[in-house]
Design brief:
Strand order of the largest sheet of chain C: 1-4
InterPro entries (chain A): AAA+_ATPase (IPR003593), ABC_carbohydrate_import_ATPase (IPR050107), ABC_transporter-like_ATP-bd (IPR003439), ABC_transporter-like_CS (IPR017871), P-loop_NTPase (IPR027417)
Number of strands of chain A: 24
Keywords (chain A): ATP-binding, Nucleotide-binding, Repeat, Transport
Number of strands of chain C: 4
CATH superfamily of the largest domain in chain A: P-loop containing nucleotide triphosphate hydrolases
Oligomer: heterotrimer
Chains: A alpha/beta, B mainly alpha, C mainly alpha
Largest interface: B-C, 57 and 57 residues
Pfam family, one (chain A): ABC_tran
CATH architecture of the largest domain in chain A: 3-Layer(aba) Sandwich
GO molecular function, one term (chain A): ATP binding
Order of helices and strands of chain C: HHHHHEEEHHHHEHHH
Organism (chain A): Nocardioides currus
Helix content of chain C: 55-70%
Distance between the termini of chain C: 48 Å
């Protein structure tokens, strides 16, 4: 048995049959079409790149390929046979394995155990471990990718790059199930690696091509072109094109990723409604440092919208939370309207007139079973109280007023917020910061995530109106398009540092490509 | 203490930095144990006698067996409050199954086996409620503890069963190499527990469930059967502990397991097992048991009321958990 | 700030979905249905049960349980659990018996304040040290039991001066026992505070999603400490009621009330995951549990079954009320 494992037999297959093929895959989520007829072909022994903006449907597609998401329509073909993937195990049985973006290793087990986890084979006899066999099995896997990691080291003592090697070694175990060349999916494998580690990873990927097919997903387009043979581009849940990597430049990909830029109208323009003269600085950040970001400087003037852009792991979300006192800082000074802030916690931030709309609306933004009225007044309780007591009439007037002003569609102010549609929920969460009329700085973390186009447009309009009334806004946009469309200025962050500031006035907007250059 | 992989036979590591050393976290509890021994030896001449060391070991026996069971549950990141109920049920059951003053049963070892099986079944019940009804373990085990106490009360039926079985009675009094048989049983349990934890898939998966349960599912491992098995195993350990209490008292008592749940959690936590799971192990817990027992014994020797025992444990557990949380503390962390 | 006005009405259709289903509505009335069903069943089993005398006796027994459950409900609503209530109640009976000779009429107040302060300490340990509430209160349980044993020398302390607790043995309007009246008063007072002040939304937000509550600037830590304080004070009040009935304080007097109290909370329909439930529900839950307790002997079930029933009820009720959307991995 062990000998058989040493030399996995790879059944030959006619070279024209694709290793993996996806036809017209569709997946709906409430209010959003995540996949809208995706087609994809992965040939044998090739590295296929997958590119697309956030929300283009990449992650849903990948999840469908490993059985974590069941598509509503469409077909998946593996080596010329139509399959239905119900679980990760199912996918593994068909030779499809994925290295997840958030690593999927058990930290307190040894590397060897992680590599064989769930498919121990001869490593376990009658429920008992045979450590030597286990170690040998793991060593074979590590040898395949030429890694010299000690199989018996605890996984949490390994570096990030080493753990990634372990993951690849683990995914390659599916060969033992299938007896033919596997398809390995790498989801954003480089996002947290140093450049030297990236080189090692690329060597591994090229090595994998000898006996497997690879799907490589990355935000960094130059890398995609560097390591892949072919690149498929997704946009809005559809595959919009395919590029041979040889001779292509990142710009080619990016043009396809963005497509035609949205009309300015969608973002409700900016300069036209603005008085034009420079306003006073509202937020001043100097040398702010924390766990995932260093030395960040940021200025936001009253009435200005400043977007922060950066790839996954750039630290922009943490900067945003730190400004709200929800993430610890190690150094730096933050002042609001000339007063230095303590950043001692969220309550102090609220009291200072800072508002924060979190990205995870359903978990962090709203309290689902509570009424619209309670959610809207959660932070600024004084606005509905007389002394310590809630004044029902005052509350009714206030809440109904805001429901009307923001056109929140709800049967009643007493309706539980979880029964509203996403866009209306988000408006209630935004209204929470407005009811007291003392908001000075608004931190918006992906405020339009998961909203359909109509609801997005309304949130944009609301942001615009708030800015016009003098509120300073920091925006972490869902897409580069949105950041460019909404912002007056854009700060680019990379690896925890603010690397570049790009002016973004109406009429003189940069292209997404200009920003991407700075982001990677 | 050993990290779980450390003493495996390994081919020479090809890397210069084998990262498998003994950490301070692992070394802390044994050092504390030695310190406690030295301090009380200095304070009390009664403490440092051979007789008292034997006494400590014998006292630790039952707690050690309970802790063996609870450690597996804690390793998964769950909690188990069912020890008092399960121990009570098995204590009464065994008293009624071996030679006793209530009925004509004289099943001997088979009686003990049946009692342990009953306990394992109760443990299994906690596990099933956890995985099938998705009720958090502290609630299912609280419920099962009540069920166990009820079963014990039903069997008790108002008349205390006194045992006359020579073998079971002998466990508590007869000695081998200076220690009571019960102590050797406890040592055996710790060894067995260590083997299970180190070499069985059940033990390693329990450890992994505490480390990253979702990863196991992603790797195609069905965790539910392993969870049920761990609670069953824990139940069996509590059952054996209940039998041991009956042996010590020569009688079956409904209250046989009173306070053992908390004492065992304390011992495990002090030994270095995290309540969040994924860290620690049987040997850690064994040190914790000795530490708690030596501390209790020492305090009594220097004249502190034995009633303070629970209070000391309460303070220790809160302090130990707080100390374990400190490095991971974050400002907006959610605590339930 | 000027008021932003959206010119165009929302194009977004009001997608209102997921209202409570018939089943959910039924579940939320389940405690009341159970209460009525139990009353009916007991009346059928023993026609004498539905008399003023036995009903008065039943609600009188339920008073300490109602108070204990009411206080602990607040902690559960915040998403935590208080396992120390029964031990703290026992300790408080010892306090009462020991302080009575010195403090006289003020003893009851002193005991409630002391128990409340002890509860606050637990709450502080929970929020400051970031220890899970069940482990803090499990530690508390152990510590309180041991303190009670030490200061009482492990035995009951007789209360000679019975005047101090006499008021609790009176009847309001000749039928409602004063102890029960006080218990309902406590429930009503807490419910009123929750309803009329922002505290209700703070507690619900904290219990439903602590991170959402914190990010909305809610005083999460203070709310939690307050909940533990009220829970402690209620344990103290329950102790006074117990002493008024037993004329003694004892270090283990209330220990067997922990399970009934937890059962009362979950039977009432308060979710153990926090954020959903109410204090009135716990009152109903406590009455259901009390009826079970006094009713079992009436229908001829040995009292040993009581424990088994508690165990089964707790697991079943938690399973029914659990908010599964919140916990993906059950530990």
């Amino acid at each position: 048995m062990i000998d058989a494992e040493l030399e996995p037999t790879v059944t030959p297959l006619s070279a024209e049959v694709p290793a993996l093929e996806v036809r017209g895959l569709v997946k709906h989520y409430p209010g959003v079409k995540a996949l809208d007829g995706v087609d994809l072909v992965v040939r044998q022994n090739e590295v296929l790149g997958l590119a697309g903006e956030n929300g283009a449907g990449k992650s849903t597609l990948l999840k469908a390929l490993v059985g974590l998401v069941r598509p509503d329509a469409g077909e998946i073909w593996v080596r010329g046979k139509k399959v239905r993937l119900k679980s990760v195990v199912d996918a593994a049985d068909h030779g499809i394995g994925m290295v997840f973006q958030e690593q999927s290793l058990v930290p307190n087990l040894t590397a060897a155990e992680n590599i064989v986890l769930g498919s121990e084979g001869p490593g376990v006899r009658r429920g008992m471990y045979r450590w030597k066999t286990m170690r040998n099995l793991a060593q074979q896997q590590l040898d395949k990718i030429g890694s010299d990691i000690d199989p018996l080291a605890r996984t949490d003592t390994l570096t990030f790059a080493e753990r990634q090697m372990v993951e690849i070694a683990k995914v390659l175990r599916i060969e033992q199930r299938t007896q033919f060349a596997p398809v390995i999916i790498l989801d954003e494998p480089t996002s947290v690696l140093e450049s030297k580690e990236i080189e090692t990873l690329f060597t591994q990927v090229r090595r994998l091509r000898e006996f497997a097919s690879v799907v490589f997903v990355s935000h960094r387009l130059d890398e995609v072109l560097d390591v892949c043979d072919r690149v498929t581009v997704l946009r809005g849940g559809e595959s919009v094109g395919e590029v041979a990597a040889a001779g292509a430049v990142p710009g080619d990909l990016h043009r396809m990723m963005i497509g035609s830029t949205g009309s300015d109208d969608h973002y409700h323009g900016n300069a036209s409604q603005r008085s034009g003269e420079p306003l006073r600085p509202m937020l001043e950040v100097r040398g702010l440092s924390g766990k995932t970001f260093r030395d960040v400087d940021l200025d936001v003037h009253a009435g200005e919208i400043v977007g922060i852009v950066g790839v996954h792991g750039s630290g922009r979300e943490d900067v945003c939370r730190a400004l709200f006192g929800a993430e610890p800082t190690t150094a730096g000074e933050v002042s609001l309207d000339g007063t230095v802030l303590e950043l001692s916690g969220t309550r102090a931030a609220c009291a200072a007139g800072i508002g924060y709309v979190p990205a995870e609306r359903k978990i962090e933004g709203m309290v689902g079973p509570m009424s619209v009225a309670d959610n809207m007044t959660l932070t600024k309780q004084k606005s509905r109280c007389n002394g310590p007591l809630i004044a029902p009439k005052k509350q009714a007037t206030l809440v109904d007023g805001w429901i009307e002003r923001l056109s929140i569609r709800t049967p009643h102010r007493g309706t539980a917020i979880q029964r509203l549609s996403g866009g209306n929920q988000q408006k209630v969460v935004l209204a929470r910061w407005l009811v007291a009329g003392d908001i000075r700085l608004l931190l918006l973390d992906h405020p339009t995530r998961g909203l359909d186009i109509g609801a997005r447009s309304e949130v944009y309009r609301l942001m615009r109106e708030l800015a016009n009334s003098g509120v300073a806004t920091v925006l972490l946009a869902d897409s580069l398009e949105e950041a460019i469309g909404m912002s007056d200025r854009i700060l680019v962050m990379s690896d925890g540092r603010a690397t570049k500031e790009v002016a973004c006035p109406a009429g003189g907007k940069p292209t997404p490509l200009d920003l991407v250059k700075e982001m990677v | 203490m050993t990290s779980p992989v450390e003493d495996v036979e390994v081919v020479a590591a090809r890397r210069p930095q084998p990262r498998r050393g003994v950490s301070l976290r692992d070394a802390g509890p044994p050092i504390a144990l030695v310190v406690i021994f030295l301090v009380f030896s200095a304070l009390s001449s009664d403490f440092r006698t051979i007789g008292n060391v034997q006494n400590i070991m014998d006292t630790a026996a039952v707690l050690a067996v309970v802790t063996c069971g609870i450690t597996f549950v804690l390793m998964m990141g769950s909690i188990d409050l069912s020890a008092p109920g399960i121990m009570g049920a098995s204590a009464i059951a065994v008293a009624l199954l071996v030679a006793n003053n209530r009925n004509d049963n004289d099943l001997g070892l088979i009686g003990i086996l049946v009692a342990v099986l009953l306990a394992a079944a109760l443990g299994c019940l906690s596990g099933l409620a956890l995985v099938l009804l998705k009720v958090p373990s502290f609630m299912t085990t609280l419920g099962v503890s009540a069920v166990g106490l009820g079963v014990a009360t039903l069997m008790f039926a108002g008349v205390q069963p006194n045992i006359s079985d020579a073998m079971l009675k002998g466990w508590a009094v007869e000695r081998f190499l200076g220690f009571a048989y019960l102590t050797w049983i406890a040592v055996g349990c710790v060894l067995l527990g260590y083997l299970v934890q180190r070499y069985s898939r059940l033990g390693r998966y329990a450890f992994a469930i505490g480390g990253a349960e979702e990863v196991l599912a992603l790797s195609g491992v069905k965790v539910a059967p392993y969870k049920v098995a761990v609670f069953t195993l824990a139940g069996a350990f509590y059952g054996l502990a209940g039998v041991m209490v009956t042996s010590q008292l020569s009688a079956g008592l409904v209250q046989a397991g009173k306070g053992y749940d908390f004492a065992a959690i304390t011992a495990a936590v002090v030994g270095g097992t995290l309540l969040t799971g994924g860290r620690g192990g049987i040997l850690h817990s064994a040190v914790g048991v000795l530490l708690i027992t030596a501390l209790t014994n020492g305090l009594v020797q220097v004249g502190v009321s034995p009633y303070w025992q629970g209070g000391v444990q309460g303070l220790i557990v809160v302090a130990a958990v707080a100390a374990a949380v400190v490095p991971q503390r974050r400002r907006n962390q959610v605590t339930k | 700030m000027s008021t932003p006005v959206l010119a165009t009405p929302a194009a977004d259709p009001a997608v209102v979905s997921g209202g409570p289903t018939v089943g959910q509505r039924l579940t939320s009335f389940m405690p009341l249905i159970a209460l009525v069903a139990l009353l009916a069943a007991l009346t059928i089993a023993d026609p004498d049960f539905l008399t003023q005398r036995s009903l008065t006796a039943a609600v009188r027994t339920s008073a300490p349980l109602v108070v204990l459950a009411a206080g602990a409900t607040l902690v559960v609503l915040c998403g935590g659990i208080d396992l120390s209530i029964a031990a703290l109640c026992s300790l408080s009976t010892v306090f009462f018996a020991m302080w009575l000779p010195d403090l006289g009429g003020l003893t009851a107040l002193a005991v409630v304040v002391a128990a409340g302060a002890i509860g606050a300490v637990q709450g502080l340990a929970h929020v400051l040290l970031r220890i899970p509430s069940f482990i803090v209160t499990l530690g508390g349980l152990s510590i309180f039991s041991s303190v009670a044993l030490v200061i009482s020398d492990a035995g009951p302390i007789r209360v000679v001066d019975r005047d101090a607790t006499k008021w609790l043995t009176l009847y309001v309007g000749g039928v409602v026992p004063m102890a029960f009246f006080v218990a309902v008063l406590v429930v009503a007072a807490i419910a009123l505070v929750l309803r009329l002040t922002p505290v209700q939304s703070w507690i619900t937000a904290t219990g439903f999603s602590e991170s959402a509550a914190r990010l909305a600037g809610t005083p999460v830590d203070r709310v939690k400490v307050a909940a533990f304080t009220v829970s402690g004070a209620c344990a103290g009040l329950a102790a006074v009621m117990l002493v008024s009935r037993n004329f003694s304080g004892s270090p283990t007097m209330a220990d067997n009330l922990l399970l009934p109290a937890v059962a009362a909370i979950v039977v009432g329909g308060t979710a153990i995951t926090g954020g959903h439930g109410s204090i009135w529900r716990s009152l109903v839950g406590a009455l259901v549990i009390t009826l079970l307790r006094v009713g079992l002997p009436i229908v001829g079930v040995p009292s040993a079954w009581e424990q088994i029933l508690y165990g089964a009820i707790i697991v079943a009720a938690v399973a029914l009320t659990l908010d599964r959307s919140k916990v993906l991995i059950i530990k």
